[in-house]
Write a structure and sequence with these properties.
The protein is mostly beta strands. The protein has a domain at 387-516: Leucine-rich repeat, LRR (right-handed beta-alpha superhelix). 6% of the residues lie in helices and 12% in strands. The protein has 5 helices and 21 strands. The chain has a 21-stranded mixed beta sheet, with no helix packed on it. Strand 3, helix 3 (85-88) and strand 4 form a beta-alpha-beta unit.
């Protein structure tokens, strides 16, 4: 028994054995069978065995000692001008290659650069100097980002024959229709997102993938959608055509007729003189502002399911009792910068819109708040009108209103009727800037957190000015008529959340001492 204990003690205290020659000759045996330590390019980081990050190092040469096991390689924000084929060809396991924001030109990108990357799924080469797209990209790709280059031409196998391809980003390039071949997406029947915005396209490209769900074509030179160009895109849900040169003759009654799933359509900032015919019944959001449409009323034939109607900068002068009744689900209505006058807005015009949450009537010629506003409103914008009165009866139902803008009107303290703010118990942001107020309106809503009073005629802030607003966080009093002694020292007592008071631009510098901050409540279970 004593001998066994002695042998055990010797075994525990003996040094580890020295590797034999046999171990050295067969590195899979003995101590040397452990994997060698991972190498990482100088200054780069390798958080995992398959991941290499060399971002923002001002590299001018592609690193030459990247592990062959790398699946995710990021070289963004460097000064690379070319990709050496011999280095890329080693990295056959790559799944993600990020080259965003370098100086890579088409001359520095050999045609065969990606031919060995047969597992590549994501490639990002945005913000480089490419003048043409790579001729061949791997069949395995799912996402390709070539945005913000100088690309004038793509090729049939740049994006074609890619059955797994889902998203293609080509915005902010110099593509014309001549640089986009008709078979550009042949064999790529799974593309759901295509961004061609901010290019030089003059008409909507034909032969786009039928699988598209989101198509971005804004900021081009498009004046025409050829007949049938969108007839196969029956899955399309979002179509962005704003900031183009579309005219009525560039569209017809069949342009959108096959888009049975289209929910979002932006045609703003074009040259349309009338509302397009044949709008899809599923349409939920329609933008038509900044065209040449001269509507004196809201069109009566809009899709019934509309959730947002954006018609700013038109000539709408009248809202009848039934003009909006055909869109009962409308949640957002923007009629800003039209020609609405109070006498031609029916008192029941907004009553059918029981789901309305945002109403923008800024920049019209209203002299009073419209009647019959739905109690569902969260945001009401009435700035830049000619309001001369606030009547409590017209605001009485707005108990869910969070934000109210009355800036740039003609309101005086005497124009605000007693009890005006009483029903607005949810109001958090109130903008009364650039009116003709001589002091802070009394009895403001208790929930108020942000109050804009800049650009008025306020010369005095009394000690009771903010007694009703204990949650106030930000107060703007700039460009009034305040002097050093204009604000009572007790004015901000009790405002324990107040962190911003802007008094710049008054006749004298006004220094404000903020109240001590509210102490934090201890967390549950804390000391």
């Amino acid at each position: 028994m004593r001998l066994s204990l002695l042998l055990l003690l010797l075994l525990l205290t003996s040094p580890p054995p020295t590797p034999s020659m046999e171990d050295a000759a067969f590195p899979h045996l003995g101590e040397s069978s452990r994997p060698p330590p991972r190498t990482c390019p100088p200054r780069c980081s390798c958080p995992r065995a398959d991941t290499v990050h060399c971002n923002g190092l001002d590299l001018q040469v592609f690193p030459d000692n990247i592990t062959r096991a790398a699946q995710h390689l990021s070289l963004q924000n460097n000064q690379l001008q070319e990709l050496p084929y011999n280095e890329l060809s080693r990295l056959s396991s790559l799944r993600t290659l990020n080259l965003h924001n370098n100086l890579i030109s088409s001359e520095g990108l050999p045609d065969e650069a990606f031919e060995s990357l047969t597992q590549l799924q994501h490639i990002y080469v945005a913000h480089n100097k490419l003048s043409v797209a790579p001729q061949f990209l791997p069949r395995s790709l799912r996402v390709v980002d070539l945005a913000a280059n100088q690309v004038t031409e793509i090729f049939p196998l740049t994006f074609g024959e890619k059955p797994a391809l889902r998203s293609v980003y080509l915005h902010n390039n110099q593509l014309s229709n001549a640089g986009l071949p008709p078979d550009a997406f042949h064999g790529s029947e799974a593309v759901t997102t295509l961004s061609l915005s901010s290019n030089r396209l003059s008409y909507l490209p034909p032969s786009l993938p039928p699988s598209l769900e989101r198509l971005h074509l804004q900021n081009n030179l498009i004046s025409k959608v050829p007949r049938g160009a969108l007839s196969r895109q029956t899955h399309l849900r979002e179509l962005y055509l704003q900031h183009n040169q579309l005219t009525d003759s560039g569209l017809d009654a069949t342009t959108f007729s096959k888009l049975h799933h289209l929910e979002y359509l932006d045609l703003s900032h074009n040259q349309l003189a009338s509302v397009p015919a044949g709008l899809p019944r599923a349409l939920a959001v329609l933008h038509l502002g900044r065209n040449r449409i001269r509507l004196d009323r809201v069109p009566p034939v809009l899709p019934r399911r509309l959730r947002a109607l954006v018609l700013p900068h038109n000539h709408v002068t009248t809202l009848g009792a039934r003009d909006l009744a055909g869109m009962p689900g409308l949640a957002e209505l923007n009629l800003a910068y039209n020609r609405l006058v109070s006498a031609r807005v029916h008192r029941r015009a907004f009553r059918p819109l029981r789901a309305l949450r945002s109403l923008d009537l800024a920049g019209n010629q209203l002299t009073r708040v419209p009647g019959g506003l739905p109690g569902s409103l969260h945001t009401l914008r009435l700035q830049r009108n000619q309001l001369r009165a606030l009547e409590p009866e017209l605001l009485a139902s707005l108990d869910q209103l969070r934000e109210l803008s009355l800036a740039h009107n003609r309101l005086r303290i005497g124009d605000i009727g007693p009890g005006t703010w009483h029903e607005l118990q949810a109001l958090q942001v109130l903008d009364l800037s650039h009116n003709e107020l001589s002091f802070v309106p009394p009895d403001l809503p208790e929930a108020l957190e942000e109050l804009h009073l800049q650009g008025n005629r306020i010369s005095h802030v009394g000690s009771e000015a903010f007694l009703s607003t204990p949650r106030l966080r930000a107060l703007f009093l700039r460009a009034n008529r305040l002097h050093m002694t204009s604000i009572a020292p007790e004015a901000f007592l009790g405002l324990l959340h107040l962190s911003v008071v802007d008094t710049a631009g008054n006749p004298e510098q006004v220094l404000v001492r903020l109240p001590p901050r509210a102490p934090r409540q201890p967390q549950a279970g804390g000391p």
